[in-house]
Design a protein that fits this description.
Blueprint: H1 4-28, H2 32-39, H3 41-60, H4 63-81, H5 87-102, H6 104-115, H7 121-149, H8 152-160, H9 162-173, H10 194-202, H11 205-236, H12 240-269, H13 274-292, H14 301-321, H15 324-327
Helix pairs in contact: 1-7, 1-8, 1-11, 2-3, 2-5, 3-5, 4-5, 4-6, 4-8, 4-9, 7-8, 7-12, 12-14, 13-14
């Protein structure tokens, strides 16, 4: 079992929240502003802030332990979402969800870098990102019908509890190449401080541009992903079961195709050229952003869903291309081919 299974489950929780927003609003008597806070800031703030110290922990700790612990925390928090009876309770639980989810991705990507060579990583990351495709396919379908038949509280419990079994399975089956007690590759006395690492990265033009791109892209894409189900429910009167089925097919199947094609392209035509991968990512991001607006313009449900279909294929390619250039060659510490400002490896300890 690979770390992609845990990304699958965790992203399942994020997508499921979008499907359940309207029911949560009615049950807890919330405003759209409060819904936005629950699905956005309450989660994202702690997710982003804690991602850095957890990534530092992954630099020198056992990454399998980090993945397992993160999934367990996430699973418990998601299940508890179904027990919330007020905005304050839901907000606190969503904070814990963000804490749990923030630990999985850094440790998983680091583990992949430890297992695969630079040439193998594009295809390896492509396989890893198929967890997103599975979460979309299973998550939207299951969540939509669970909310419609049993309610949003039962839905969160059904989604969260299985994660505990996956956390235990990961702990028993995954192996960290660095060993149970990972040793730092740099002596503590010579290891750079966190401030030194931030300064080094900020001076790197390539890194700054990628940071801006990630921030802007996720600001819009994550927000629209959470509110797209609400848009279809309010604008076209769709039930969550029907909507979940449509989104499962559109996002799930198209993401599988897009991620696979993106991984094959990177492996065949940009194997050792991070510059080419970055250019492809920029083009894909720009096209996807323009086409995303077409989802909300048509007054016809079929045309709107067709636009979601098109955007999902393109966006899946962006998800695939975004990680290999970031990796560069972290194992050997050699310079990438992103240009004179390419990323050097600098372990944070």
């Amino acid at each position: 079992m690979g770390p992609d299974g845990h990304t699958d489950l965790q992203l399942h929780g994020s997508y499921s929240l979008g499907v359940a927003l309207e029911d949560i609003k009615a049950d807890l008597h919330l405003s759209d502003s409060q819904l936005g806070f629950l699905s956005g800031i309450a989660f994202a703030l702690f997710y982003s802030v804690l991602g850095v110290p957890i990534a530092r922990w992954a630099d020198r700790g056992n990454r399998v332990t980090i993945i397992s612990l993160s999934v367990a925390v996430w699973s418990i928090a998601v299940a508890l979402c179904g027990a919330a009876s007020s905005f304050a309770q839901m907000m606190l639980i969503r904070v814990v969800v963000g804490v749990g989810e923030s630990g999985c991705v850094p440790a998983s990507l680091s583990l992949i870098a430890g297992y695969f060579t630079r040439e193998e990583r594009p295809r390896a990351v492509s396989l890893y990102m198929q967890g997103v495709s599975a979460s979309l396919l299973i998550g939207y379908f299951a969540s939509g019908w669970l909310v419609q038949i049993f309610g949003w509280r039962v839905m969160f419990a059904v989604i969260g509890v299985p994660g505990l079994a996956l956390a235990l399975l990961a702990l028993r089956t995954l192996k960290d190449p660095r060993g149970r007690e990972a040793e730092p590759t740099t002596a503590p006395s010579s290891a750079p401080s966190f401030a030194a690492v931030c300064l080094f990265l900020w001076k790197n033009l390539t890194y700054r541009h990628m940071l801006y791109s990630f921030a802007v892209n996720w600001f819009f894409s994550y927000g629209t992903l959470q509110w797209t189900p609400v848009y279809f429910v309010r604008s076209f009167g769709m039930k969550t079961g029907e909507l979940g089925s449509w989104l499962a097919v559109i996002y799930g199947v198209m993401y599988i195709m897009g991620v696979f094609l993106g991984g094959e392209w990177a492996t065949r035509y940009a194997l050792r050229s991070e510059r080419r991968q970055l250019v492809a990512m920029a083009i894909i991001t720009s096209v996807s952003g323009v086409l995303a607006a077409l989802v909300y313009i048509p007054a016809n449900r079929a045309k709107s869903l067709s636009s979601v279909h098109l955007v999902s294929v393109i966006h899946a390619n962006w998800r695939k291309h975004r990680w290999p250039p970031v990796f560069g060659d972290p194992v050997t510490g050699t310079r990438t081919h992103a240009g004179r400002d390419g990323l050097d490896d600098l372990s944070v300890r």
